[in-house]
Design brief:
The complex is a heterodimer of chains A (about 240) and B (about 230). In chain A, helix 1 runs antiparallel to helix 2 and helix 5 runs antiparallel to helix 8. Chain A has about 240 residues and is mainly α. Chain A has a domain of about 150 residues: MetI-like (MetI-like fold), CATH 1.10.3720. Chain B has a single domain, classed as Orthogonal Bundle (MetI-like fold), CATH 1.10.3720.10. In chain B, about 80% of the residues lie in helices and about 0% in strands. Classes of the chains: A mainly alpha (about 240), B mainly alpha (about 230). Chains A and B meet through helix 2, helix 3, helix 8, helix 9 and helix 10 of A and helix 3 and helix 8 of B. Chain A: Its main location: membrane. Chain A: It is found in: Cell inner membrane; Cell membrane. Chain A: Belongs to the binding-protein-dependent transport system permease family. HisMQ subfamily. Chain A: Keywords: Cell membrane, Membrane, Transmembrane, Transmembrane helix, Transport.
């Protein structure tokens, strides 16, 4: 193989003048984590609301939840990001559109919001399945005790449902982190983006992508381990995973 | 709001969008799903086989692929495949691989990891008595898998497999990062040439949405029809 390996490349200064190539990749990692964190907060909040709506005894709320999930699940994430980034500012009133386009860090906010809503549909489906997996008696008992619908969800259904769906939520969180790489297409210099620009500047393709790969694997391992602890901590006594 | 939009640009671009773009997207989706299913089934069989080492290798491969973003994997294979080709054919220089071949290899290798988990679940859903009965009838391991286990596993998992293929169909849009003319790539090229981003991206969104919606409706119908009553 006539490829010139040069593992020392990481400690050479990068052409942006922001330190070494390694610093460049680490700043990409930081941006990946920041984007993923904000997207995950959006996904959890909107996903929970929509997921609850799908289980409410109201035709309108069910229908809205169904339409919401179908809308965000049936378009590629890349297309959704393009819609947020290129299309939305044009469809808004002129002043709002201009303001949006001149926003500093526009790729970051677009990516976080776009990925957040994309993932919220998936969170909603998981939560709906979690609430659906609870025995009917729980809701009935809550009603019999005189709890209102809001109270029943707040004190009985949701605390159970969220614990049950913790493992699938972990993989959705990992998906959120991985999906931030799609934002490279709207110019966000997250980890994959930094690895790509390192490759373009230094021509050390395989070193750059190997480093990015290792960093993704590390993040993955940390999240999986952290969630294991969380799972054990909130486990419900009496369930298979319980104490 | 829609006042100064020119929807005629879409009509003019239709042949290019569908004959070139959508043909690429659908061919890539179909072949990648097929290849991913074959490799994925092989991985699942490795994982469930009695040989610990084979199972370990398959497990590592699946976990590795599933923890990387698809975009990064696309870049990896795009740069790696020429060198692998050189190594396989013994050429003196990295061989050039077309955009289609490169992305097809990427998606087969990537999707195999996801299909293998589905097939593993499918194989494990078969009751133990089935392979036991098969070997009592004198069937070899290969025959047991070929005639007894895999057909049932495939049938049980068909809705999930198709759902994964819909995800794959949407994910093929990511070849955009290699400037390949798939459906979204074609739409984006027209959009940039004519300065009509809003019209083209809205149209692309509607097309992806419609196809995925119809397909997932089909999956729901199928699920109701082939559900085995236990």
């Amino acid at each position: 193989m006539n490829y010139n390996w040069n593992w020392g490349i990481f400690f050479q200064p990068n052409p942006m003048g922001t330190g070494t190539y390694l610093d460049m990749l680490l700043s990409g990692l930081a941006l990946t984590l920041k984007t993923a964190a904000l997207a995950w907060v959006i996904a959890l909040i909107t996903g929970s609301i929509v997921g609850v709506m799908r289980t409410l005894p109201s035709k309108g709320a069910n229908w809205f939840g169904f339409a919401y999930v179908e809308f965000f699940r049936n378009m590629p994430l890349l297309v959704q990001l393009f819609l947020w980034y290129f299309v939305l500012p044009e469809l808004l009133p002129k002043a709002a559109g201009t303001w949006l386009k001149q926003l500093p860090n526009a790729p970051f906010w677009t990516a976080a919001i776009g990925i957040g809503f994309f993932m919220s549909a998936r969170v909603a489906v998981q939560l709906q399945a979690g609430i659906g997996s609870l025995p009917r008696g729980q809701k009935m008992a809550a009603t019999a005790l005189g709890l209102t619908t809001v109270q029943a969800y707040r004190y009985v259904l949701l605390p159970m449902a969220f614990r049950i769906i913790l493992p699938p939520l972990t993989s959705e969180f990992l998906n959120t982190i991985k999906n931030t790489a799609v934002a490279i297409t709207i110019g966000l210099l997250e980890l994959t983006g930094q690895a790509r620009s390192m490759q373009e500047f230094s021509f050390q393709v395989f070193e750059a992508f190997t480093a990015a790969t290792i960093l993704y694997l590390l993040v993955n391992a940390v999240v999986v381990t952290g969630m294991r602890f969380l799972e054990r901590w909130v486990a419900i006594p009496g369930y298979i995973t319980g104490k | 709001m829609f006042g100064n939009l020119d929807f005629d640009v879409i009509r003019r671009a239709l042949p290019y969008l569908f004959l070139e773009g959508m043909t690429f997207t659908l061919t890539l989706t179909g072949l990648a799903a097929l290849g991913g299913l074959v490799f994925g089934t092989a991985l699942a069989l490795m994982r469930l086989s009695g040989f610990k080492i084979l199972g370990r290798i398959a497990g590592i491969y699946v976990d590795f692929m599933r923890s990387l973003p698809l975009v990064l994997v696309i870049f990896w294979f795009y740069f790696l495949v020429p060198y692998i080709g050189q190594w396989v054919t013994g050429a003196s220089r990295p061989i050039s691989v077309g955009a289609f071949a490169s992305s097809l290899i990427t998606f087969i290798m990537f999707e195999a990891a996801y299909f293998s988990e589905i097939m593993r679940a499918g194989i494990q859903s078969i009751s133990r008595g089935q392979p036991a009965a098969a070997s009592a009838l004198g069937l070899t391991y290969a025959q047991t898998m070929r005639y007894v286990v895999l057909p049932q596993a495939f049938r049980n998992m068909l809705p999930v497999l198709i759902t994964q293929t819909i995800v794959l169909f949407q994910d093929t849009s990511l070849v955009y990062v290699l400037s390949i003319t798939d459906f979204l790539g074609a739409a984006s090229k027209v959009a940039q040439r004519d300065g009509r981003l809003v019209e083209m991206y809205l149209f692309a969104a509607i097309v992806y949405f419609t196809i995925s919606c119809i397909a997932s409706y089909g999956v729901r119908r199928l699920q109701a029809r082939i559900a085995i009553i236990r």
